[in-house]
């Protein structure tokens, strides 16, 4: 599959919440995992380049081992909104 076709297979979970945050899992197709950098946390331009579509301001802040299969992102929302938002990206 080409990249455009792979992007159609990115899975976005329903949102879920705790007292402070809103969360969502994003699952990439297995074929896309080779495109994810292993040496550094991704910039917004990098994860958008993979085809992940979220609102502006998300920050990749953690890689979960083993295998680097869990990628976690967050964005701080305006305090008046009452919550911050996290994305967990599985490969």
Automatic annotation (TrEMBL):
GO annotation terms (biological process): cell division
Record carries keyword Cell division: yes
Alphabetically ordered keywords of this record: Cell cycle, Cell division, Membrane, Transmembrane, Transmembrane helix
Keyword Transport: no
Role according to the record: Binds to the catalytic subunit of the cyclin dependent kinases and is essential for their biological function.
GO MF term list: cyclin-dependent protein serine/threonine kinase regulator activity
One Pfam assignment: CKS
Family: Belongs to the CKS family.
Name of the protein this chain belongs to: Cyclin-dependent kinases regulatory subunit
InterPro entries, A to Z: Cyclin-dep_kinase_reg-sub (IPR000789), Cyclin-dep_kinase_reg-sub_sf (IPR036858)
Chain ranges passing through the membrane: 70-89
